[in-house]
Specification:
The protein is of the alpha+beta class. Helices cover 19% and strands 31% of the residues. A three-stranded antiparallel sheet has the order 1-3-2, with no helix packed on it. The two termini are 28 Å apart.
Length: 85
């Protein structure tokens, strides 16, 4: 469970949630930082990062990339930080 994982993490400076969709949704309210790969293409599948309130996070960095052939899509590694308040 998320609660058990948080207890195991203790006072670690950083802990990562790596899915799936329901776990992302549950952990999002606790997140101080989001480290995401944003893909500029739709893919089939049932696991997605949930929509989040972008008004409570500020983009801190963005590293754009283009996938190597034969893939034809752009993506970016993006870090968001929760706005204090």
């Amino acid at each position: 469970s998320l609660e058990a994982a948080r207890a195991l993490a203790g006072d670690a400076a950083r802990a990562f949630v790596i899915g799936g969709g329901e776990l992302y949704r549950a952990a999002l309210v606790h997140a101080a930082e989001l480290v995401l790969t944003e893909i500029e293409r739709d893919f089939e599948g049932d696991a997605r990062f949930p929509d989040f309130d972008r008004s409570v996070f500020r983009e801190q960095s963005r590293e754009p990339h283009r996938a190597a052939p034969p893939n034809d899509f752009d993506y970016a590694f993006v870090t968001y930080r929760r706005i204090a308040g």
